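Action item from last meeting closed. Structure (382 res):
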């Protein structure tokens, strides 16, 4: 009998091979991954779903943000190999952050149920936020066996074989944004995501060495990866750019000094240097593009939520009062790009204000030093 057959035998002994781990991730790990997702996510593979893949982080010059995933991925792989008695090391086929906003759901399925998904042997879903606190709906169900229903709680992980012994579904999210770190593991080493990632990283490095100074400033992907059209949002007549939506949820408007008119190409504009405004104040800091401003703003909120004391330290930047013409430009931009915050993100904005209470009211500029903290992470070896 081959070793793989021995493994299969072991699994066969369990009718529904699955494992639930409570508090596998710390609160800090969940929050850091949430920060990465809220800074970098693109529209996902189904309506009302957003995703952040490792290859997307590399392609947008944000590969330093892959670092927090690596120890978590290793710990999970070890758990899976141990629990399912794998004789050979597994490879990670996919690692990604996936969030579901209002309207997202998935019916009964197994995770290897398409010819192009056959290489998926094991699934690990890590919950990064909590049912009843951060979102409503979104309960996970196994069709057969125990446990029947799982209410996602930040830090918990559900691990199961990707075949039909673990047919599952997820209820529709009715409020908020449900966030997971999802991984698939394979016995087939030709499906190792790292091989593809390393190629991508090498390409980027080669490109950089052509006399281009090293930079950790993000380069946004193509515009259609951030743009949610009404047909991608079920039951909602909304369209928006996810980057603008997330900035808006934090209470920011974007300010472009150039003149806008209806022939201006929005996708080109969003690549241009810009500033952030809050109410009647313009933040002094200039950002190289809208994705840069989103990463900085999300970084600030992540740290703000972590330590209220930090607010005193970071209120060192400059703000200026918006002039009448600047305010008009901001209002014009709203009309111009015709974006709205979808239900889920709106609720998020309300929650953030509730969590931070007075702090958000006194929010001032994000000091550029904070961004260098992010850059320094990139100096650690991958
Ligand atoms: O997020 C979950 O709880 C499970 C999601 C799922 O079933 C999938 O992505 O295949
Ligand atoms: Fe699934």
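Sequence:
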């Amino acid at each position: 009998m081959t070793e793989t057959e021995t493994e299969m035998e072991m699994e066969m002994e369990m009718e529904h091979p699955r494992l639930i781990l409570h508090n596998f991730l710390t609160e800090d790990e969940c929050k850091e991954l949430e920060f990465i997702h809220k800074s970098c996510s693109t529209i996902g593979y189904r309506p009302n779903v957003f995703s952040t893949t490792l290859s997307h982080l590399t392609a947008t010059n944000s590969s330093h943000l892959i670092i927090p995933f690596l120890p978590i991925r290793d710990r999970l792989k070890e758990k899976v190999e141990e629990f399912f008695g794998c004789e050979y090391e597994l490879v990670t086929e996919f690692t990604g952050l996936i969030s579901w906003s209002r309207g997202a759901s998935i019916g009964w399925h197994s995770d290897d149920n398409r010819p192009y998904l056959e290489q998926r042997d094991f699934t690990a879903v890590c919950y990064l936020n909590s049912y009843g606190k951060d979102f409503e709906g979104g309960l996970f169900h196994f069709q057969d066996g125990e446990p029947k229903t799982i209410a996602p709680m930040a830090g918990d992980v559900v691990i199961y074989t990707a075949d039909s012994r673990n047919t599952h579904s997820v209820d529709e999210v009715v409020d908020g944004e449900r966030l997971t770190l999802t991984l698939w593991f394979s016995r087939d080493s030709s499906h190792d995501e790292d091989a593809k990632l390393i190629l991508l990283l090498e390409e980027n490095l080669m490109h950089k060495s052509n006399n281009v100074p090293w930079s950790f400033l993000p380069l946004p992907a193509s515009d259609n990866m951030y743009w949610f059209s009404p047909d991608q949002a079920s039951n909602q007549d909304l369209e928006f750019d996810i980057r603008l939506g997330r900035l808006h949820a934090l209470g920011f408007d974007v300010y472009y000094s150039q003149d806008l008119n209806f022939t201006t190409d929005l996708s080109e504009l969003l690549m241009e240097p810009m500033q952030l405004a809050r109410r009647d104040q313009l933040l002094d800091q200039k950002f190289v593009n809208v994705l840069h401003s989103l990463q900085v703003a999300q970084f600030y909120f992540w740290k703000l939520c972590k330590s209220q004391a930090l607010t005193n330290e970071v209120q060192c930047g400059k703000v200026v009062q918006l002039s009448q013409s600047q305010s008009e430009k901001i209002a014009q931009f709203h009309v111009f790009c015709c974006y709205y915050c979808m239900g889920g993100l709106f609720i998020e904005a309300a929650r953030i204000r509730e969590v931070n209470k007075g702090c958000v009211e006194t929010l001032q500029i994000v000091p550029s030093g904070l961004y260098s903290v992010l850059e320094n992470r990139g100096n650690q070896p991958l």
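Note appended to the action item: Confidence is low (pLDDT under 50) at residues 309-316, 337-382.
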